[in-house]
Amino acid sequence: MKNTPLPPHIGALHPGPRNAITDVAGVTVGHTTIADGPIQTGVTVIRPHGGDAYRDRVPAAGTVLNGFGKSIGLMQVEELGVLETPIALTNTFSVGAIAQAQIHQCVAANPQCGRRLPTVNPLVFECNDGYLNDIQAMVVSEEHYLAALAAAGPGFAQGAVGAGRGMSSFGVKGGIGSASRIAPIANGAEYRVGALVLSNFGRPAQLTLAGHAIGPMLAERLAAAGEPEKGSIILILATDAPLDARQLRRLSLRAGAGLARTGSVFGHGSGDIALAFSTAYTVPQDSSRPMPQIAMLHDALVDPLFQAVADSAEQAIIHALWHAETVEGRDGHSRRALLDVMADRISQFSEQAP
């Protein structure tokens, strides 16, 4: 798109060099996008590090802001406070297929998984892309998961790609968005926080962009009726700050602050789930290996991280809208890009990072 305005920058904190979740060292992201007529869907994979997540687990915790969702693996993450696989995002009807793909991949790398070694906890999040995608076709397969896993790298596309291909937000095209912030801590340390969202939520009239309530105008231009909230959003947060699972759960909860700023009220039919993990250390799966000796960040010092989470989550949602393209899918359904619908109104909000 020519002369595309820059998205507004949220907050006073500086972004990392990519302004993406991969500014947290070691984190990589990959997509498989399926765009074929009525099939508009895909898979997105977030790797917490370059090794075997089953053998070297990272601390993690989640928050269910509204539980209208069909994810797999959250219960064990809540109990044990670690990830055992990469994080996978896809559509609602493909959760089972992707979970099976994660199990197969883990067994291939660890042949004693489920025998001499413990079973693996797959972790798959979903949103319903059935407006644009023929979700009943259930075309997403193990092949697509493995391709996204193999494609994972520090640079990745945003918008209507991967799991975000068929997603909608605020009556326009949603999808994948990411952002990062650098949080200076009072003890002199500096940590990075990155967010990645699968954005599929929001009614047109609700949209607030960098504090500007443009939703009523958007609803008027889309001639949108006052339908109830039926979407969802998954918010994934990464940090290099040394935090335990309890602290990471507190971090994940603050993603709701960034989500609310965009106009969301966590509607009845919306599945709004946040998960945070730290790359500061790993927890060995093998009990014969030593546990890490890490000094955790003091609770009294975490406020800058909370700010970074809220700002990067809001920024990631804006980036999902900003990078999206108009997509046509099943039965003639289409979602226009926000910049196509509101270009004359939102260009004035464009601003550089501090």
UniProtKB/TrEMBL annotation:
Classification via SUPFAM superfamilies = DmpA/ArgJ-like
Sections of the chain in a coiled coil: none
InterPro entries named among the record's database cross-references: ArgJ-like_dom_sf (IPR016117), Peptidase_S58_DmpA (IPR005321)
Write down the Pfam families for this protein, in alphabetical order. Answer: Peptidase_S58
Q: Which family does it belong to?
A: Belongs to the peptidase S58 family.
Q: What is this protein called?
A: P1 family peptidase
Q: Which organism is it from?
A: Phyllobacterium phragmitis
